[in-house]
Write a structure and sequence with these properties.
This protein has 172 residues and is α+β, with helices and mostly antiparallel strands. The chain has one domain: 3-Layer(aba) Sandwich (Glutaredoxin), CATH 3.40.30.10. Helices cover 31% and strands 27% of the residues. It is built from 6 helices and 9 strands, in the order ββαβααβαβαββββα. A 7-stranded mixed sheet has the order 2-1-5-4-3-8-9. Strand 4, helix 4 and strand 5 form a beta-alpha-beta unit. The protein is globular and about 45 Å long.
Length: 172
């Protein structure tokens, strides 16, 4: 499993945009994890699935609500990562009104989840292989903090916990 001090894996995630903008088409657009995190401070949180109860009611909304606080704490971008396709992540972004606040990144083939060792096997429950629920702060591609949830838990990967860690990291 990935640890604090490790470089994040080199993977291609995908992102869907509602409207074409400068340098980006509607999508899905590839996002190289190393290039996108280079020279940046990233607040990344991962969820088992878009539109699932805890993810939609608690996890994602906290990050949307505190997006400006993360920027004020020195975070350049917030990434929401899930083992879903870019179209599902785009639809979830619309529903949760994340535009301009976070990047909704699809790990459709679980490449990032597998490379970090943070997978969640939900075979037999109709969901297959997913990402575990966690959050991490990344600076220039290196994991600075990592908060991995226990099975069925939502206690340490919430926005308030990661925001406090971002404030501490950038105050040092």
């Amino acid at each position: 499993m990935i640890q604090t001090g490790d470089k994040i894996p080199a993977c291609t995630l995908f992102e869907y945009h509602e409207t074409a903008g400068e340098g980006c088409s509607v999508g899905p657009n590839p996002v190289d994890t190393h290039a996108a995190s280079s020279g940046q401070t990233i607040a990344l949180f991962a969820v088992p699935g878009a539109f699932t109860p805890t993810c939609s009611a608690k996890h994602l909304p906290g990050y949307v609500e505190h997006a400006q606080d993360f920027l004020a704490a020195g975070v350049d971008e917030i990434w929401c990562l899930s083992v879903n396709d870019a179209f599902v992540m785009g639809a979830w972004a619309r529903e949760q009104k994340t535009a301009g606040k976070l990047r909704m990144l699809a790990d459709g083939d679980a490449a990032f989840a597998n490379a970090t060792g943070l997978t969640l096997d939900l075979n037999g429950k109709g969901l297959g292989l997913r990402s575990n629920r966690y959050s991490m702060l990344i600076q220039d591609g290196v994991v600075k903090t990592l908060n991995v949830e226990g099975p069925g838990k939502f206690e340490v990967s919430d926005a308030a916990t990661l925001l406090a860690q971002a404030r501490s990291l950038n105050a040092a």
